């Protein structure tokens, strides 16, 4: 049994893993292969705002543990968000919401050769486009691919 830092953590399940080893007040259900982090009152873990850095085609790489919700505010056009490896993201559901007045094009890119499927498509590609007239999208990972659930 390994020790972790932090206080008031609850782990249920064989091999449940804390996303933040030194964090406090975490509730984790599951196994080492598939853990579910529950934050207070079953609320989403909000990851903050993803902002385009400096020049067109900048890439922001997401890495586990993922938040369930991110805001996107980029004045860079186009802007790229790289989804993490499917092998480390099984069960992840992530919602992205555009904020601010700038509605530049965003491309959600796969990692390596991991499949990524656009909404309403049975064909994977290298990226999924979040066009300028769209405000929100959501992805889910089944451990083999990323799937865009909706785009509006």
Protein architecture, described:
The structure is a single chain. The chain is mainly β. It folds into two domains: 10-41, no CATH class; 44-151, Jelly Rolls. It is 0% helix and 36% strand. The protein is built from no helices and 13 strands. The protein has strands at 10-12, 27-30, 35-38, 46-50, 59-61, 69-72, 79-82, 93-98, 106-109, 116-117, 127-130, 136-141, 146-151. The protein has a six-stranded mixed beta sheet, with no helix packed on it. The radius of gyration is 16 Å and the shape is globular.
Short précis:
0% of the residues lie in helices and 36% in strands. The protein is mainly β and 152 residues long. The strands form three sheets. Strands 4-6-8-12-13-10 form a six-stranded mixed β-sheet, with no helix packed on it. It has a four-stranded mixed β-sheet with strand order 5-7-9-11, with no helix packed on it. A three-stranded mixed β-sheet has the order 1-2-3, with no helix packed on it.
Task: Sum up the structure in keywords.
Jelly Rolls; mainly beta; 2 domains; six-stranded mixed β-sheet; 152 residues; 36% strand; four-stranded mixed β-sheet
Secondary-structure element order, N to C = EEEEEEEEEEEEE
Shape: globular
Tell me the helix content: under 10%
Rg from alpha-carbon coordinates: 16 Å
Q: Estimate nothing, just give the exact number of structural domains.
A: 2
Can you list the strand order of the major beta sheet? 4-6-8-12-13-10
* Total number of strands: 13
Overall structural class, as computed from helix and strand content, comes to: mainly beta
Q: What is the architecture of the largest domain at the second tier of CATH?
A: Sandwich
Distance N to C terminus: 45 Å
């Amino acid at each position: 049994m390994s020790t972790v830092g932090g206080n008031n953590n609850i782990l249920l399940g064989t091999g449940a893993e804390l996303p933040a080893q030194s964090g406090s007040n975490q509730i984790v259900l599951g196994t080492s292969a598939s853990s579910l982090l529950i934050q207070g009152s079953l609320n989403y873990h909000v990851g903050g705002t993803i902002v385009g850095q400096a020049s067109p085609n900048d890439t922001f790489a997401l890495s586990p543990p993922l938040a369930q919700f991110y805001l996107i505010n980029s004045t860079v056009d186009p802007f790229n968000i790289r989804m993490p490896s499917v092998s480390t993201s099984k069960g992840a559901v992530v919602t992205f919401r555009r904020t601010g007045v700038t509605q530049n094009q965003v491309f959600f890119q796969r990692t390596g050769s991991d499949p990524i499927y656009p909404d309403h498509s049975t064909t994977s590609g290298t990226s999924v486009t979040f066009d300028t007239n769209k405000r929100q999208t959501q992805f889910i990972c089944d451990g083999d691919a990323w799937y865009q659930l909706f785009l509006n």
